[in-house]
Amino acid sequence: MGRIGDARFVPLLEKALKDPDRTVASGAAGALYRITKKDYSASIAQSSKSTRTDFDWTALASITPATKAVLKTNKGTVTLQFMKDDAPFTVLSFVKLAQKGFYDGLGFHRVVPNFVLQGGDPRGDGWGGPGYAIRSEYSFARFGRGMVGIASAGKDTEGCQFFITHLPTPHLDGRFTVFARVVDGFDVVDRLQVGDTIEKVTIEL
C-alpha cells in the first residue's frame, strides 16, 4: 500500500496501527509515512500483546537463530538455516517431524527444472501429509534461489511437504510460507531428481 501511495488506503492503515501485533502496526506506520509523509511511530505499541495456544512453547524456545537442518540425500548433503521469525510454527512442525525420523527414507516426487524440487511426502504422489494441517505463515520473505517453502493446497492446509527453489520465483512471494533457506549444498539441490531420496534429516540445535 505504501509503494502504491494511494490516500484511499489511509483509513485502513490507521486501523492497522492499533493491531496487537507490533509487526503489523509497524508495517502500517511505514506505509502511512510513504503516503502522508507523517511520522506515526508514536502510535505503535511498544511490544506485541502476548497470546498463548496449545503449541509446544518449550520446543519452540529451543530453536535458536543458529538451528539448522542437515538433509543427507543420496546425491549429497544440503544444509538449511531456519527462519523462525518469519514462520515460527512451520519451523517447529518441521523440526519435530525431523526429530521423529518422519522424513528419513522419503523421496523427492516433483522436480521442475529452473523452478523447484519438492519432497517430504509419505505417499510419494504429492497428496500425503503428516496427519494434521498447520496454519499459513505468510511474511515479507521473498523466494530467491535456495529458499525453502511448505507446499499448500490453500490457506491453512500446509503439512510436511516442502520445496526448494532453484531460481528466484517472485510469483510465489506472499502466497506460500517461507521457513528456511539453503546455506550449503546448492550443487546438490541442482542435481536432485525425481526418485532421489532423503536418507536422513538431522536437526542441529
Please provide a written account of the structure.
The chain is an alpha+beta fold. It folds into 2 domains: 7-43, no CATH class; 57-204, Cyclophilin, CATH 2.40.100. It is 22% helix and 21% strand. It has 5 helices and 8 strands. The protein has helices at residues 10-16, 22-36, 57-62, 88-99, 186-191; strands spanning 68-73, 76-82, 108-112, 116-119, 147-150, 162-165, 178-184, 198-204. An 8-stranded antiparallel beta sheet has the order 3-4-6-5-7-2-1-8. Helix 1 (10-16) packs antiparallel against helix 2. It is elongated, with a radius of gyration of 19 Å. The N and C termini lie far apart (38 Å). The mean pLDDT is 93.
Termini distance? 38 Å
How is the largest sheet built, in terms of strand order?
Answer: 3-4-6-5-7-2-1-8
Strand-residue proportion: 15-25%
- State the CATH class of the largest domain: Mainly Beta
Instruction: Please give the number of β-strands.
Output: 8
Q: So how many helices?
A: 5
Q: Which class best fits the helix and strand makeup?
A: alpha+beta
Major sheet attributes: 8 strands, antiparallel
Gyration radius (Cα, Å) is 19 Å
What's the CATH architecture of the largest domain? Beta Barrel
On the 0 to 100 scale, the average pLDDT is 93
The helix-strand sequence is HHHEEHEEEEEHE
Report the oligomer: single chain
Tell me the CATH superfamily of the largest domain: Cyclophilin-like
Question: Which range best describes the helical content: under 10%, 10-25%, 25-40%, 40-55%, 55-70% or over 70%?
Answer: 10-25%
Number of domains: 2
Global geometry: elongated
The low-pLDDT segments are none
By CATH, the topology of the largest domain is: Cyclophilin
